[in-house]
Write a structure and sequence with these properties.
about 300 residues, 16 helices, 5 strands, elongated
Length: about 300
């Protein structure tokens, strides 16, 4: 993933999404491009057209934070998009590639982290990285995502989304789930562009899935902190769950996500049924609420 190409495509797609009316500019006539012209963005950011054109060609090295902020305001970037732009600028300013730090071949959750997961019994809870690998779960989380582990997903939510046909049943709004998966991967690619495992995953999905390629080319990014999602689990049926995402300060780059159901709802009853079903499974990983060890997961 060449940084200049990513910068160019990101700024171009953001400019194309913003109409003159949204920017408070007259639409005029004979517009040959979707969204704003480069000259209009330059005017809104209070930089020269030559300078903005240089930025949009992918040259962010040496650009000040004030200019980046001005461009973000001109393009009306949301918080996730603004952070992504600054991540791309940081990557452009790296004159040397920092050798990756040594990591154990198998990532294993700290005992305290696994105990914390196991203490959550009312809903699925799991730890994931920015590549959407599920690294550890509680027992209910392992049962909730059982199909992610036993098929083409191989413990990765993006693979499950795009390579496993069962995901279209699991996610009633499959398109929205697919959009979120790609946006999270795109955000991670901006944050850590030298992650070879991420590059391999993106290459794999781009080769196999046209749905992924189309979304990847849109350059949408997203923060995944809290919300409500609908699911259809193959054992217990429909579930409407709220989720909260927490960054793990002791494990940089990893997030803890917890799903809960509204008290007294059918979804709560279905989660209880799922917990009962999980307790009957003989798979030791399911019984312990842990995920199979994988190489270089963090």
């Amino acid at each position: 993933m060449d940084n200049r190409d990513v910068v160019r495509e990101f700024l171009t797609t953001r400019r194309a999404k913003l109409t003159p009316d949204q920017a408070g500019l007259p639409a005029g006539s004979n517009r040959r491009v979707p969204g704003l012209r480069r000259s209009e963005v330059a005017m809104l950011a209070d930089v020269s057209i030559e300078y903005y054109s240089k930025l949009e060609r992918g040259s962010l090295a040496g650009v000040s934070d004030s200019v980046l902020s001005a461009v973000a305001r001109a393009l009306q970037l949301d918080d996730a998009e603004r952070e992504h732009l600054f991540d791309l600028a940081r990557a452009a300013n790296q004159t040397t590639v920092t050798p990756p730090r040594r990591r154990p071949k198998q990532w294993v959750p700290r005992p305290g982290l696994q105990l914390a997961l196991d203490a959550i019994t009312a809903g699925p809870a799991f730890v994931r990285n920015g590549r959407l690998d599920i690294l550890a779960t509680n027992a209910l989380g392992r049962a909730f995502y059982d199909q992610v582990f036993d098929g083409p997903g191989r413990g990765n939510l993006a693979r499950f989304n795009f390579l496993d046909d069962r995901s279209r049943d699991f996610y009633p709004d499959w398109d929205a789930a697919a959009d979120v998966s790609v946006a999270i991967l795109r955000t991670e690619a901006g944050r850590d562009p030298h992650d070879k495992h991420l590059q391999d995953l993106i290459g794999e999905l781009s080769t196999i899935s046209e749905q992924f390629r189309t979304r990847w080319g849109a350059h949408n990014v997203r923060r995944h902190g809290a919300g409500t999602k609908n699911f259809h689990h193959h054992v217990v049926g429909d579930l409407t769950l709220t989720y909260e995402g927490l960054e793990l300060t002791a494990e940089p780059g990893l997030s803890l996500l917890i799903y809960t159901a509204e008290p007294g709802s059918l979804s709560e009853e279905n989660l209880k049924l799922l917990a009962s079903w999980a307790a009957t499974q003989t798979d030791p990983d399911t019984a312990r609420g842990t995920t199979p060890a994988k190489e270089n997961q963090q």
